[in-house]
Amino acid sequence: MPEPSVVGDINTVHRECAKKLLVPEIKRRRALWQATPPQNAEKVDLVTENLLSWMMQSADGQENEPAHLAHLEIVISLASIHTSQMNVVHVLYDLATYPEYIESLRKEIRSTSKEDGGWHKSSYSKLRKLDSFIKESQRCNPPSMLSYHRVMSQDYTLRDGTKLAKGMHLAMAASAIQNDPEVTPSPDVFDGFRYYKMRQQPGEGHLHQFATTQPTMLNFGHGKNACPGRFFASLEIKVILVKLIMDYEFKFLDDKGRPANLKAYEFIFPNPEGQLLVKKRDTKETFRF
Known about the structure:
There is one protein chain. Helix content is about 45%, strand content about 10%. By secondary structure, the chain is mainly alpha-helical. A three-stranded mixed β-sheet has the order 1-7-8, with no helix packed on it. Mean pLDDT is about 90; it is low at about 1-10.
């Protein structure tokens, strides 16, 4: 896999824009809550109940400052929206790079729709080949080279004698771990159905899914603090891709191939300057949810 190119620091334009939009709203809501009699508080909560309100209610100390809450909103948006969008773009780039997979994916979608007598939320969990392709795309193009970031709240000594000091920042080399040849055979080869084939093994049908975590697959973390939104993200990505795969044809402009990823620190982004030619499929077959 080619080393991604490097981009500069992300500027503060979005952060300042968030403050401009959200700080007045945070102050307005606080004033409204303070002016509302206790007997009417439930009605106000129903009107303003959303993520911003939940953040305001749970914030403590410095987090209570409106500007800090606005900054946290940007961080949450990045984690919940931007990463899913990037994953879709990576998959589209990989489908255009390896178009031989597309018809197999369409066949799986058709057979699932026929089996389920239409399309339902549960149908997405049956798309094992698509799930595998998404996971392989993420393996080759992870959102970050690192995962499982933690800051030590106290001194601690591991069983092998390694001392971790209070305040130390820890992270796992997620990309290096999952691309170790002992974990992933032939890691430099893109195999869109790699995990589909692994799930065919006895007792492993529930493993190796895009949204499942393992000690060697840490893009979503692992254990009790694994990303709680990964199942929703998986569903969201599949909803988008099923529609695009079934209704459109796409290829790179002038067959230039997949554009190199961009990198800022440990973070990896699909190149926004990549260009895909997209057209409606010349067929009566269209996908309807």
